[in-house]
Amino acid sequence: METSTLGAILGEAAEVETVDDDDDDDDESDDDEDEDDGRVLAGEPVGDAEVLSDLGTPAARLLKLSAEEGLLPGDVISALCESAGCLDPLETLRGG
Description:
The protein is mostly helical.
């Protein structure tokens, strides 16, 4: 089985921790259906969408790439690296 150096690096960086804010809300009513319960739906983007704006990918483009149906994660990473000017080092990491 092959392993990906880039996948290992990005996998560690992608770990998301959620904080349970419900500890303080024990005496509040649960009738408010609009309240965020801290859960993230599968496929829903998390984090700071502006994180790559200084590297050439504005938030709107990042969110569009993330939501584009049929686009593989590797394709998204390639597009982001191309915008940032680091596609050649990415291809070197990929072994190509």
